[in-house]
Design goal:
Largest sheet: 3 strands, antiparallel
Strand order of the largest sheet: 3-4-5
Radius of gyration: 19 Å
Helix content: under 10%
Number of helices: 2
Distance between the termini: 24 Å
Length: about 160
């Protein structure tokens, strides 16, 4: 992923994970292939994207009506049963706003030879806990305008050099 980050020859990078990257424009064709190992597979073109936290995002294509909702810790079934949509997740851009979902979680115990299904409440809100700096002891700077999250300040590698 490092070849895609802070690279001025590519479109703006908005989100990356272990095996995915999301840009605001197309990559050069030589990086894309559905069959060649080591190249990227184009899985979709989206009109709108919302990246709230690592492994928490929503993508939508207004033309096709297709959407992708990923929420780490919330099962696909719970996303569907709780009607989690792009629009619902945008409410989390309001300062101090939280969403609460119900889900069934399966817990297996090899020692007890059983599986327990437990009703669980899952709370989701935007936090600054993932991008903590050494000096501050925490927190990316969440920038709000009129109570709405508009951006975060980036972490600069130079800030961490001794």
């Amino acid at each position: 992923m490092s070849q895609f980050k802070n690279n001025p020859s590519f479109p703006n990078l908005y989100y990356s994970d272990t095996d995915s990257v999301y840009f605001d424009g197309p990559l050069p064709e030589n990086f894309i292939s559905n069959t060649v190992l080591g190249k990227l597979k184009l899985e979709g073109i989206w009109d709108k994207a919302l990246f709230l936290a690592p492994k928490v995002y929503a993508l939508t294509n207004d033309q096709t009506g297709e959407s992708v909702i990923k929420v780490k810790g919330l099962t696909k079934d719970a996303i569907k049963r709780n009607n989690v949509t792009f629009e619902l997740l945008t409410t989390l851009l309001t300062k101090d706003y939280k969403l609460t979902f119900n889900q069934n979680k399966w817990f297996k115990s090899l020692s007890e030879a059983n599986i327990k299904i437990v009703d669980q409440i899952y709370t989701l809100q935007v936090t600054d806990s993932k991008r903590r700096g050494r000096e501050e002891g925490g927190g990316r700077d969440l920038i709000y305008v009129n109570g709405n999250l508009v951006r975060t300040n980036p972490i600069l590698i130079s800030d961490f050099l001794l």
